[in-house]
Amino acid sequence: MKKSFLQSLGPGLLFAGAAIGVSHLVQSTRAGAEFGFGLIWALLLV
Length: 46
Known about the structure:
By secondary structure, the protein is mostly helical. It has one domain. The chain contains three helices and no strands. The protein has helices spanning 5-20, 22-35, 42-45.
């Protein structure tokens, strides 16, 4: 069976929310929406 994109993404989001913490997941998404790729350089520092 072929899964849709959202069905494949769902378990990963749940695991990320549990491992990282929901507040970090929400803030990271919010920062991505606000700044776009402007903060991608920060990945090199982490």
